[in-house]
Specification:
Length: 536
């Protein structure tokens, strides 16, 4: 069996260049050639995981099937490759140091002075190589977060330097940099790229491939100039130009021969490896970019000012719209601003409404108004996680007549705790420790819309929440038309609620957006978008 190849993607000049998209795109191209591929993200911040980070700072928190709270780039990896990621696919500096300190406390280092080199770098290398040592992958593509030159990234770059020496042609570095266009001079400038590569070289790493992130096409002269000054072959200097969609990037990088150059530099003969079969990918892209009719969806949430805060929901709606031959027009609605007086004016014209997840009481009253309006006006509505919890509270208030119905998260004095915390969670006090995380089974009730959508009795979906629907209210809810159509077979916890007699009014305690991919759109999103299309 061939040795696992390790590819590292670093960034220079500026952040937010799209290292995650380049990593996922390369993974897709290699996978389409028949290789087994996984992607990994190394994050330089000291948080142990992104679960406690504000979405305004870091975008959404993605959750893996094994219950790890991860960087949003893991969502890109799964959506592109259609392969599940796990805890080992996302490593932070916080976790690296936590592991090393725990080993030191146990005496694992036998009295040695614990230092960044070799102990921190060895721990980084151990986590990187752990994926390859499973024997499950031909390529492990590791994205190093941050920008070269950042003090936080130094241990990761040093670990990369060591791995390149240890592994030879089984390890290579792709450096993604920004090439600015100066309008006054009317030309692209490569000097920032040269300095970025110089910084990388000073840290002991020579990039094997340079990808120039640009808004304007890069000429052959510029490519040769970068190659000359950065010690890289001209054919290993490529451009990543602005694309109409992130899903076009794999095809753009295929046109740049990225997969061929990677194969050659890791010891393969590209001519002896099957060409990348992108047939299914192209079919999706044709639907995505070729749709003429639109479907209008409103996303109601408390973090809508930052587009990455609900990244997976946005992408899941895009997948579903494309497969329904529609162009998604998504309107972000800040729930803080919604009131009984402006709700109709805000949401009229929307064919469907998604009420987003979140934590804390801010913006909740606006979500109540959005749900009431959708319920009373037969507008397709999808409540996700807290969206489902608020859906239950609104129903208890305005249909069952419990005016003070609430979640214990928002009001500890409520006499109708429609949403509550499980008893065994209340003893866990550390942030994140009391959450239900990862994939859990859900039994679907025959004769319900949820059972019809999934087409099977037992499903598994990912969770990230602390509070639950209070099952003591289940009988009363169902007597008034709100059916608990999905429950956990082990605990009996309610996972899905749906309103009978409504075109589409479903809430899920889990996060279906985490498992929607380009080639396997989620059935709930497909059904929801289909209902929105029918709502003229």
């Amino acid at each position: 069996m061939a040795e696992t190849k390790y590819i590292f993607v670093t960034g220079g000049v500026a952040s937010s260049l799209g290292k995650g998209i380049i990593s996922a795109s390369l993974g897709k191209l290699l996978q389409a050639r028949g290789f087994r591929v996984t992607n990994q993200k190394l994050d330089p911040y000291i948080n142990v995981d992104p679960g406690t980070l504000n979405p305004y700072e870091h975008g959404e928190c993605y959750v893996t099937v094994d219950g790890h709270e991860a960087d949003l780039d893991l969502g890109h990896y799964e959506r592109f490759l259609n392969v599940e990621t796990h805890k080992i696919n996302n490593i932070t500096t916080g976790r690296i140091y936590q592991n090393v300190i725990m080993k030191e406390r146990r005496g694992d280092y036998l009295g040695k002075t614990v230092q960044v080199i070799p102990h921190i770098t060895d721990e980084i290398k151990r986590n990187v190589k752990a994926l390859g040592q499973t024997g499950s992958f031909d390529f492990v593509i590791t994205e190093i977060g941050g920008t070269v030159g950042d003090i936080e990234s130094l241990p990761y770059i040093e670990a990369l330097r060591q791995l390149k020496w240890e592994m030879g042609h089984n390890c290579l570095c792709i450096h993604l940099t920004y090439v600015p266009f100066l309008a006054a001079a009317k030309e692209l400038k490569t000097k920032p790229t040269q300095h970025s590569v110089k910084d990388l070289q000073q840290e002991g790493v020579q990039p094997d491939i340079i990808i120039l992130r640009t808004e304007h096409a890069v000429s052959e002269d510029i490519r040769h100039k970068v190659a000359l000054f950065c010690n890289v072959e001209p054919e290993a200097v490529m451009q990543s130009i602005d694309a109409s969609s992130i899903y076009r990037v794999p095809l753009n990088m295929q046109a740049e021969h990225l997969d061929e150059v990677v194969l050659r530099k890791t010891g393969y003969d590209p001519g002896k490896v099957p060409a990348a079969d992108m047939t299914s990918w192209n079919a999706f892209l044709e639907k995505l970019e070729g749709a003429n009719e639109e479907v209008r969806i409103a996303l109601v949430g408390k973090y809508v000012q930052l587009q990455d805060a609900y990244k997976s929901i946005h992408e899941s709606l895009s997948h579903a719209a494309a497969y329904c031959n529609r162009r998604l027009v998504l309107t972000s609605v800040l729930s803080d601003d919604l009131t009984k007086d402006n709700i109709a004016g805000t949401l009229t014209g929307q064919q469907g409404v998604v009420v987003a997840p979140g934590f804390g009481s801010r913006g909740v009253e606006g979500k109540f108004e959005a749900l009431r309006w959708c319920r009373e006006n037969n507008i397709p509505c999808f409540g996700i996680c807290m969206g489902m919890q608020v859906m239950a509270i609104e129903f208890a208030r305005n249909v069952l007549g419990y005016a003070d119905a609430n979640s214990l998260e928002f009001d500890e004095r409520t006499t109708h705790n429609v949403v509550d915390m499980m008893e065994d969670q209340k003893t866990l006090i550390n942030m994140g420790g009391s959450m239900r995380l990862g994939a859990y089974a859900c039994q679907l009730k025959r004769g319900t819309k949820a059972r019809e959508i999934y087409g099977k009795d037992l499903i598994s979906e990912r969770h990230r929440h602390r509070y639950e629907f209070n099952h003591h209210y289940q009988a009363e809810f169902e007597a008034h038309g709100m059916v608990c159509s999905g429950t956990n077979p082990d605990s009996g916890l309610v996972e899905i609620i749906e309103l009978q007699g409504h075109p589409w009014y479903i809430g899920t305690q889990f996060h279906p957006e985490y498992s929607s991919t380009v080639l396997r759109p989620h059935p709930l999103f497909l059904s929801f978008v289909g209902a929105a299309i029918e709502n003229k």
